[in-house]
Amino acid sequence: MDRLHITGGVSLEGEIRIAGAKNSALPVLAASLLTQEPLKVCNLPHLFDITTMLELLGCMGVQRIVDEKMNVQVDSSTIENLNAPYELVRTMRASILVLGPLLTRYGRAEVALPGGCAIGSRPVNQHIAALRTMGASIEVENGYIRAHADGKLKGKHIFMDLVTVTGTENVMMAATLAEGQTIIENAAREPEVIDLATCLNKMGADITGHGSDTIVVNGVDELHGCDFAVMPDRIETGTYLIAAAATRGRVKVKDTQPHTLDSVLSKLEQAGAVLRVGADWIELDMRGRRPRAVSLRTAPYPAFPTDMQAQFTALNAVAAGIGSITETVFENRFMHVHEMNRMGANIRVEGNTVMVEGVERLNGAPVMATDLRASASLIIAGLVSENETTVDRIYHIDRGYECIEEKLQSLGARISRIPVR
Ligand code: UD1
Fold first, then answer.
1. I need a labelling partner for 288 at 20 to 30 A (CA). Which of 152, 184, 188, 309 fits?
2. What sign results for the dihedral spanned by CA atoms 279, 287, 268, 306?
3. Does the pLDDT value for residue 346 go beyond 60?
4. Catalytic choice (59, 117, 226, 403)
């Protein structure tokens, strides 16, 4: 298992390009199961989770052809089985995204039940309840979700009890080939849901209302292939901007979508960053100043994203003042706090809130990554530390950040990967 070694104390300076969005690419790849024709997906990020999704499709018999630019042509006409095995699902919960497409196109699916994970129990009951409402028989036994439908799924009026991103995506994909109209109320409004709907419409689906909390899908007989470029990763964008702010630097991120980051940019401005924004780029300049602590509360889009609170905790750890960060989406997403306190931070957990009192500087230490975004926050903490930090278990970071050490090196950071055998 590799480690990252960081020598802190450098203000990040320079320009980087943002990769395609993991959370858009995963459902778009799953959507390839909805058609006999090849789907060409472009702007895919180089990430473990993408490899896992391609492996999952591969073990069903789906053909994937990857070109040198990491564009992937996925052809599901060769599919042989309809199972998502536990070995793959346990490494990536988003494997559940194949359930809706398999069920609606083939009337059958067997998907291992994703277990708990470091950030909470994360059930998939909403996915299952909605698909049952559409006429599927679903049993959960021996750790597997076994689903089947007699004939086509039926379009229905579905009310999601809570806002779920992959739940909305699963039901939206299932509805594309269902009989009649499906209305999804309390739908997730995340930009990645819009991106998936845009791809599905390009494949011939009839979806409206995506981006609002009511999505309407009129079922069609079949979908066809298309070329689709996934949107830029807003979480990667935000992570580099926060790293720049925490290190008092100046960074331009290119090939991004600034409008998907409104809540994050507003917090960065409150922290004292000077921002310039173009059509597809954002430049952040701290003018060498120490950031000010900010307070925030996570919630579904367009509110502040849960995937970015840990990084702001790292910024607050060295900011002037006291900031509070409240997590409302997941139950256990503060694993990074104890590691940051080992680096000299002053952070207290009170229920689902952390109170962060900024200190002048952190001290590097060996720390352990526990989940994807927590890992990113520990890297930021390492970058603002006085001396050396090693971050262990970085397979988490490789799931969601493309070439992170190379991108940070290009911004001047002293960071390297140490292979551990
Ligand atoms: C997606 C993102 C993840 C992000 C999260 C919240 C992908 C691949 N992952 O995860 O990066 O952190 O959205 O923005 O897009 N819940 C239930 N029952 C369900 C489904 C969800 O109780 O059937 C709960 C979850 O436990 C959680 C909340 O709903 O507390 C939101 O989860 P959800 O939006 O489903 O997260 P994911 O789609 O798994």
1. 309
2. positive
3. yes
4. 117
